[in-house]
Design a protein that fits this description.
By secondary structure, this protein is an alpha/beta fold. The chain has 15 helices and 13 strands. The strands form 2 sheets. A 7-stranded parallel beta sheet has the order 3-2-1-4-5-6-7, with helices on both faces. β8, α8 and β9 form a beta-alpha-beta unit. The radius of gyration is 21 Å and the shape is globular.
Length: 394
C-alpha cells in the first residue's frame, strides 16, 4: 500500500492520528505500507516514510490551509512517483484532496487502483479556516475541482455516515463507491485511570500548576475558531459566572498566544491552563487528570477524532450537537445547540453536579468505543474497503 499524506506527518492532532491508525490497521492485516509526506513532522516507529526535500522559507509544521502547501505538493509528486517505481504497490491510499490529486495522476500513469480517504470538504475546510470566502472568484473553480477529485477514486473511505451522505448529496458521488471506515478508538493506548495511577496524576497536576483537588474539564485538539476554541472560552466564562467550580485544561496548538490573551481578557487566567501541543504518546496521562471532556467543534463537514480518545479514556463528554458528534457519541453525549456557548456552559455544570452519574456515562462511552470503533472492527472495515477498491481497479 502506498499512502500519500500531503501534510506534516506526524503531528499531534486528529487528521494525523487517523492516518497513523489506518497505517497500523493495514499493517495488522498483513500489508506492507510506505507513506509519502512533507519534510516537516516526526517519524513513527515501524512505519516506512519518504519525505519531500525542505523548502528554505518554511520550516515549521503545516496545519490547515496554506499557500506554502502548494510548494510542498509540487515536491511531493516526484517522491510519490519514485516510490511507485521502487516500492511497486498494489494500491494507492490517498489522504486529503491534495493527496487525491496526486493519486489520480499516479493512477493515470500506472493503472493502480486508488482509494481516497475523505475526511471532509476541501472548500468547506478552507472557509472554516478563514482561508477562502464563498464569495471569492476562486471558490467555484475549487469546488468544481473538489467534486471532480471525489469522483475519480475507485473507492472513497468516509469516516462517518454524515461524510458519506455529504459525498452523495453535495458532490454527486455514487453511493456504491463509498465505504464507511470510521476513526479508530485506541482503547489499548487510552484507558480510564486506576488507583495505581494516583501518584502520577498528583505529580502531573503539580507540574502543570493545577489545583490539587477539585473537578477538571479537559479539551484536547487544535485551537481555532472552527474547532470552537473561542466558544469554549466564552462557555467557561458563563460557567464560572453561573457558580460553576472547575479548572479547565486546554491542550493543543496553534495560536496559543492568541487564546491565552483571549482567556486573560475574559478574566480566566486563574481558571484555565494552556499546555500547548501534547505528544500523542503522552495524551492518556493528561486525560487521566480530567473529570469531564468537552468537544466544542462547530465544523459541519469534518470528523472529530478527539471524541474517541475521550471515550476510550472513560470520560463523559459535553459536545455541540452536530451530526458527527451524534454519530460517534450516540445517546450518551451531553449536547448543547451548536454555537451556543451559554448552553455549553450549562451542560458542563449539569455534568459535574452528579459525579457518579458522569463516571457511569464515561464508562458506557468506553464500552461503546470498544464495540463500534475498536481497532479490530475498523481493520475489518478497512480490509473490506481495500478488497472493493482492488476489484473496481481491475
Amino acid at each position: 500500500m502506498l499512502f500519500i499524506a500531503p501534510t506534516s506527518f506526524f503531528a499531534d492532532y486528529g487528521c494525523h492520528v487517523r492516518i497513523l491508525q489506518q497505517a497500523r490497521a493495514a499493517q495488522a492485516l498483513g500489508h506492507e505500507v510506505l507513506l509519502c509526506t512533507y519534510h516537516s513532522g516526526r517519524d513513527w516507529p515501524g512505519l516506512a516514510i519518504r519525505r519531500t526535500p525542505p523548502i528554505p522559507w518554511r520550516r515549521g509544521l503545516e496545519v490547515g490551509s496554506s499557500w506554502h502547501k502548494l510548494a510542498y505538493d509540487v515536491l511531493l509528486a516526484p517522491v510519490c512517483l519514485q516510490a511507485v517505481r521502487r516500492f511497486r504497490p498494489h494500491l494507492i491510499h490517498a489522504f486529503l484532496h491534495e493527496g487525491a490529486l496526486l493519486g489520480w495522476m499516479l493512477r493515470a500513469c500506472t493503472g493502480l487502483p486508488l482509494a481516497f480517504d475523505f475526511q471532509g470538504s476541501l472548500t468547506s475546510e478552507m472557509v472554516d479556516h478563514g482561508f477562502l470566502s464563498p464569495r471569492s472568484p476562486f471558490f467555484r473553480p475549487l469546488r468544481w475541482l473538489e467534486a471532480f477529485l471525489d469522483r475519480q477514486a475507485d473507492l472513497l473511505l468516509a469516516n462517518s455516515g454524515h461524510a458519506a451522505d455529504l459525498l452523495v448529496r453535495a458532490f454527486g458521488v455514487a453511493r456504491e463507491r463509498i465505504a464507511l471506515v470510521p476513526d479508530v478508538a485506541d482503547v489499548a493506548h487510552f484507558r480510564p485511570p486506576g488507583p495505581e495511577d494516583a501518584p502520577a496524576r498528583a505529580a502531573l497536576r503539580r507540574r502543570l500548576g493545577l489545583p490539587e483537588s477539585g473537578p477538571l474539564i479537559a479539551y484536547l485538539g487544535l485551537l481555532a475558531p472552527y474547532q470552537g476554541t473561542d466558544l469554549l472560552l466564552q462557555a467557561v466564562r458563563h460557567f464560572l459566572d453561573g457558580g460553576g467550580r472547575a479548572h479547565v485544561l486546554i491542550m493543543g496548538f496553534p495560536h496559543l498566544d492568541r487564546y491565552r490573551a483571549q482567556a486573560e481578557a475574559l478574566g480566566l487566567a486563574s481558571a484555565v491552563t494552556f499546555t500547548g501541543a501534547i505528544p500523542y504518546e503522552e495524551a492518556p496521562r493528561y486525560l487521566h487528570l480530567a473529570d469531564l471532556a468537552v468537544a466544542p467543534k462547530i465544523s459541519a463537514t469534518e470528523g472529530s477524532g478527539k471524541l474517541l480518545a475521550y471515550m476510550a479514556a472513560g470520560l463523559p463528554v459535553v459536545a455541540f450537537d452536530t451530526p458527527v458528534h451524534r454519530e460517534v457519541l450516540g445517546d450518551l453525549g451531553l449536547y448543547a445547540p451548536a454555537g451556543d456557548a451559554r448552553a455549553l456552559a450549562a451542560r458542563m455544570a449539569e455534568a459535574l453536579e452528579d459525579r457518579e452519574a458522569a463516571r457511569a456515562r464515561g464508562m458506557a462511552l468506553r464500552a461503546r468505543a470498544e464495540r463500534l470503533f475498536g481497532p479490530d472492527a475498523v481493520a475489518q472495515s478497512l480490509a473490506a474497503a481495500y478488497s472493493r477498491a482492488l476489484d473496481r481497479g481491475r
